[in-house]
Amino acid sequence: MEYYKKILRFAKPYLNYGYLNIFFNILYALFSALSFAALMPMLNVLFEKDKQLTVAPVYKGIGKLKDYFMDYMNYQVTQFAAEDKMKGLVLVIGLVIFLFLLKNLANYFAMYFITFLRNGVLKDIRNAMYKKITELPISFYSEKRKGDVIARITSDVLEIQHSFLSVLELIVREPLTIIFTIAVMFLISAKLTLFVFIFIPVSGYVISLIGKSLKKQSDDVQREQGEFLSVVEETLGGLKVIKAFNSESRFYKTFSASTTRFFNFSNKLLNRQNLASPSGEFLGILTIGVLLWFGGKMVLVDKTLDAPSFITYMSLAYGVLTPAKAISKAIYGVKKGNAAAERVLEILETENPISEKTNAVTKNTFDSEVNINNISFKYDDEYVLQEFTLKVPKGATVALVGQSGSGKSTIANLVTRFYDVNEGTISIDGIDIKDFKQESLRGLLGLVTQDSILFNETVRNNISLGKEDATDEEIIAAAKIANAHDFIMDLPNGYNTNIGDSGNKLSGGQKQRLSIARAVLKNPPIMILDEATSALDTESERLVQDALEKMMRNRTSIVIAHRLSTIQNANTIVVLQKGKIVEQGSHAELIAKDGTYSKLVNMQSFE
């Protein structure tokens, strides 16, 4: 129930729908009980001559309300049946039909209002999950497979709707139907009703035994679904490599192994869940059978119950079976939904290590310098950077070079605060970046990465990502600076052309120039370029490099470079090796030293 309470907090905005649902469920339960009870006067008059009343009954107080109600109904039916028995029959049939009409109208309105609550909760859970997914740091997704996260926001949330939220339809209606029905049954025969209660704890115990293992089995199903969705996601992302290395069969084996496990887990879960309806129905029929024996004895032997009352009583008892079965299925649903709720809440309740202080600073200008002061950082156990210090004055271009794994890209991740340093500080204009509002910090920064991350939208929407209110003139100006305008105009619909998933309709150089145009339009005072030209051919590199040089004019830039020819004009070049600075200076100064940088330049000149 703990998970259930946490999920139900999303129902608060929709409580009015919940109250209306409860109101109509009360009416449904009441009319459900009365629709069966209405048969009794007809049976009394038609089959028991001594129950016919020719004189209207007198009300004798609340204690005799049952007798008064039954006598009044008998009197009305007797009056109609006096002239023609069929009139009395038609009266009672009309009453029963009318009560069933009211019952089903109440049921419709109850379902109508609960629909808004259920779907509203579903929408808000999904929105909360998406918001949390975007808030969580990059490090969270190095531990979680993307397919598993997708499974949680899709199938797990749907499972909550089918299991947890379906209980909302039953939580008032079915128990009240049982309560009202049993109340009428108690009025007809207290002795017989008390006998029924002996079997209720037995039925409950059997149902609980069946449902105990449902949560674990459901957890296995949900987890395995996340596994094969991850395989699908990785397959689509790496399809070129899979085909190039003829690895289709290998990935198929991995996927089919996962779906086989899913098949087995699902069979165990559903077969256990499928026991709910037959076991509940069998226990109900068993109770009916015992009632027929015990009640029949009261009618035929003890003469303590008349036949019409017993027939009505049995109709009511059988009418209890449907809500009882629904409740037993709902109990299984809650147990099954616990696993899905746990997986959803794991995301929603994950603490974000990249926290924002309550009095965080908002700053829209960059005035003096970026200061990376004696920082150390590790992703796992080994330090990637150790006692690293660097100052980037306003207007300067600082380039970071070094072999792969030396910590260059880590600097970009730390300055943008995708990760927090383990030791030391990073400050902008003397303010620790941990003291900034994250939105404010990233508003000062522009990022162009080696992998051009574009979205399945138009060229216009991709460029204006960081400035949604940008005018057409601003977008075109940014594209011209990025040397992208000409090729954009050659596209079928110009700036309104959809570029496909991840921009796959464009070449590598075109995608990179759109990324640059996006950064230019944002116009941040500090630019971080993470190996922005390393994946390009020579011609594309020339166009992109020209675009980068235009963009970096009069701007503070941190350039992470693989191709050293692109950073020779940098004010300062920092050479990294295993997370530490081994050389620092201008291109000419470092060449003159004939050290690590000079060797790197000579190696690339022979490539």
Automatic annotation (TrEMBL):
Location(s) in or outside the cell: Cell membrane
Protein's UniProt name: ATP-binding cassette, subfamily B, MsbA
Species this protein is from: Cellulophaga tyrosinoxydans
CDD domains the UniProt entry points to: ABC_6TM_MsbA_like
GO cellular component: plasma membrane
Gene3D superfamilies, A to Z: ABC transporter type 1, transmembrane domain (1.20.1560.10), P-loop containing nucleotide triphosphate hydrolases (3.40.50.300)
Annotated ABC transmembrane type-1 domain residues: 22-336
Main location group: membrane
Molecular function GO terms recorded: ABC-type oligopeptide transporter activity; ATP binding; ATP hydrolysis activity
Key words of the record: ATP-binding, Membrane, Nucleotide-binding, Transmembrane, Transmembrane helix
Domain (ABC transporter): residue spans on this chain: 370-603
The keyword ATP-binding is annotated on this UniProt entry: yes
Claim: Cell cycle is one of the keywords in the record: no
Membrane topology of this protein: Multi-pass membrane protein
Transmembrane segments: 20-43, 89-114, 178-207
